Fold this protein.
Amino acid sequence: MQTKQVLEKHQVENVDDLVKKFMDVDAGYSRAELSRIHEETAKVLSRNAGLDDIIRLLELNAIENEDMLKRLLVTSRLSAKDITNFLKYRKTMLDDAYGIVQKLLEDAANRIINYLSTKPHIYDLKGLSQVAPTVYDGVKKNNIDIRIIARPKNNNKVILYYESEHNYLRRDCELWVVDTKKHDPPELLTFGDIVKITGIRVIPLWDLYK
């Protein structure tokens, strides 16, 4: 099928819009959040942008690798050429920024694990092992096996990126969050908390149980 026919079939004007459509890049973002993303990305793309600007963009969106950044840049409505140029000419600075954000994730995990270790009457961490980037197995809560997902909640936001997080949360798993820039103790984020915060009233199940 010719490119023109494909674009007409999916009712988009160009290949970039087709990519965005299939990536569903706007899912989970409000208009205000998208506006902020566009503004922050524009700052980072300016010639005067420094490492601090890039780190801020990555931290605000919990971005820790190039794949996650590409998804955000597509969301910002940049052309494929602009995205390629940005990733190419800012590579060294981006590598430094990824490292800083990765440390943020590690700090969050350490804070959460250390906090749970102060509650040995509830949590037994003797068999603790990391089974995914943010997921820990080998935990017992009141003698019942569970897994822990540890995530930062800096900027009053928790972003679940890894597919492993979605899968583990379906069965015997707790989601713990902490703001690494504050001294407040970690908190357990429950399904009830998520419903209350997001205002979800309808949950489409699709083929979840097939």
Remarks:
- The longest strand covers residues 144-152.
- The two ends are 33 Å apart (CA to CA).
- Residues 147 and 173 are 5 Å apart (CA to CA).
